[in-house]
Design a protein that fits this description.
Elements lengths: L2 H13 L1 E2 L9 E5 L2 E10 L4 E9 L6 H16 L2 E5 L10 H10 L3 E3 L2 E4 L17
Length: 135
C-alpha cells in the first residue's frame, strides 16, 4: 500500500468512528456535534487510490451527505490520493442512480456509467500549468 493511502486511512479513521453494530464493523460513521449523520464504507487500494464503496446519510435531505463528502474529498486532497467507486443507490433512498451521478459531479467527480473517480486537487506545492493568454 502506498504511504499516502496509508496516511489517508489513518487520518480518516481518527476522524470517524466504527459502526457500533458488529455486523457493520467495516462501516465508519461521520458525526456532526456528536450525532451520527453519515455512514462510509472505504477501503485502501494496493494501486494507490481510495475505494469509496458507499456513502449514505442517516437522515437524507439535510446536507450531511454533501458535508461529509466535501470533508472526505478535502482529506483525499491533503494526501494527494485519488478516489474511485461505483454509484450504488440504496433501497428506499430518495436519490436514484442519475441523481447520485449528478451529486457526485457537483463534488468534482468524473462519472462514467456507474463508475466515479476524483483526482486530488493540486496542492500549493505543485506548480499550476501555465496557459497562454488570448488576445
Amino acid at each position: 500500500m502506498k504511504r499516502s493511502v496509508r496516511r489517508f486511512m489513518l487520518d480518516f479513521y481518527s476522524q470517524t468512528k466504527q459502526h457500533p453494530h458488529p455486523m457493520f464493523s467495516d462501516v465508519s460513521v461521520f458525526y456532526v456535534r456528536d450525532v451520527p449523520v453519515v455512514h462510509f464504507q472505504v477501503f485502501p487500494s494496493q494501486s494507490g487510490y481510495i475505494l469509496l464503496e458507499c456513502i449514505s446519510a442517516v437522515d437524507e435531505g439535510h446536507g450531511y451527505g454533501s458535508m461529509a463528502l466535501d470533508w472526505f474529498c478535502a482529506l483525499a486532497d491533503k494526501y494527494q490520493v485519488e478516489i474511485e467507486g461505483e454509484i450504488t443507490p440504496f433501497r428506499g433512498s430518495r436519490m436514484d442512480g442519475q441523481d447520485l451521478a449528478t451529486w457526485y459531479q457537483r463534488h468534482g467527480f468524473t462519472v462514467s456509467e456507474e463508475n466515479i473517480s476524483r483526482k486530488p486537487a493540486p496542492t500549493s506545492k505543485e506548480p499550476l500549468k501555465k496557459t497562454k493568454a488570448k488576445r
